[in-house]
Amino acid sequence: MTENLRPSGAHSTDQDPTPYASPYAYDGTAHTGTAYDGTAYAGTAGGYPPPPPYAPTSRRRAKRPVALLAAVALAAGVIGGGTATLVGQLNGGGSGATGSGGAVNGTTVSQSSKGTVSGVAEAVSPAIVEIGAASSAGNSTGSGVVITGDGEIVTNNHVISGTQQIQVTLSTGKTYTADVVGTDPDKDLALIKLRNASGLKTATLGDSSQVKVGDQVVAIGSPEGLTGTVTSGIVSALDRDVTVAKDDSGSSGQGQDRQGGGQQWPFEFGGQQFNGDTGEETTTYKALQTDASLNPGNSGGALINMDGEIIGINSAMYAPSSSASGSGSAAGSVGLGFAIPVNTLKADLDTLRAGDGS
């Protein structure tokens, strides 16, 4: 039987008895015809010539990425943000937001600046203050670290011991009056509080147990009244036994870091006394040793790791000229400075806030 097959896409005419009826009879018998490439083909009743060989493959390839992304997106909904970032990359959207941009809590060390002295200094300097202490013995200059937005500041006990008035200057130049909250002479630590302060930049207290010899560090303070001075170096030793006076009653009257007066806080190390007589009442603590330059006025300031975290409170430095005699101008740093480990401070904070050590 010969059938008059209508070409693909042809339209019916008035001569068609059934304009929209199929020209094929669905009787289950096979029909023969010509494939797209001109070869003969066979099919079931009502069959059309097979589609081009590339068509099915093309459709499957088009669907695979969609299915893959759908599966990844489903996993992202279960796993969380990390996979969501991957989905964004697969979709050509690039990496997602990194939240804080690698910032360390309490600081603003950006990911690009982390590990650099300039990045640490920019982030932490606003949380380091200059402390001016007035007493009957004269005026002295020290440093402090802001730990709460309403003005709690950690410093050395010897910076504020015996003072009658405390003035604190922020990195912005704004000045506050401060009161002593609590002191711990045994650890040479003190906590003071600014009056009517709020919204201050705060520092992050790190973990001094993770500090290793050779770690890079940054010191920030107010040596000789030069507010916000930044120096850098390394941790040169751990657990040094440093002995300091418990108050300002040293025989030379050198209880505080006196600006430009040739008098620095006396301490003992290795059986020798430096910077004057420590007096009769002393205390010994384990200290971090650093070669970052420390000078009179750095006491109470911060020793900082390269993530912008406080790892120590600077407390003592060796000045050779004043150790040899009780007078004369202050010597510069010779790379022998000490800091109270921040874990000692963290363990003592409740005592300082309660004023129990005063």
How is this structure best summarized?
With 358 residues, the protein is an alpha+beta fold.
What does this structure look like?
It is globular, with a radius of gyration of 39 Å. A hairpin with a 4-residue loop joins strand 7 and strand 8. The chain is built from 6 helices and 17 strands. The strands form 3 sheets. It has a 6-stranded antiparallel beta barrel with strand order 3-4-5-8-7-6. Strands 10-11-14-17-16-15 form a 6-stranded antiparallel beta barrel. Helix 1 (54-79) runs antiparallel to helix 2. It has 358 residues and is of the alpha+beta class. The N and C termini lie far apart (116 Å).
Compressed to H and E, one letter per element, the order equals: EEHHHEEEHEEEEEEEEEEEHEH
In the predicted model, the low-confidence regions spanning at least 5 consecutive residues are 5-18, 20-26, 65-105, 249-256, 258-262, 322-329
Gyration radius, rounded: 39 Å
Query: Which bin fits the share of residues in helices?
Result: 10-25%
Question: What is the strand content?
Answer: 25-35%
Biggest sheet statistics: 6 strands, antiparallel, barrel
Query: What topology, given as strand order, has the largest sheet?
Result: 3-4-5-8-7-6
**Class derived from helix and strand content:** alpha+beta
The number of distinct helices, counting runs of at least 4 residues, comes to 6
Cα-to-Cα separation, first versus last residue: 116 Å
What general outline do the C-alpha atoms trace?
A: globular
State the total count of DSSP E strands.
17
Please state the average pLDDT score.
73
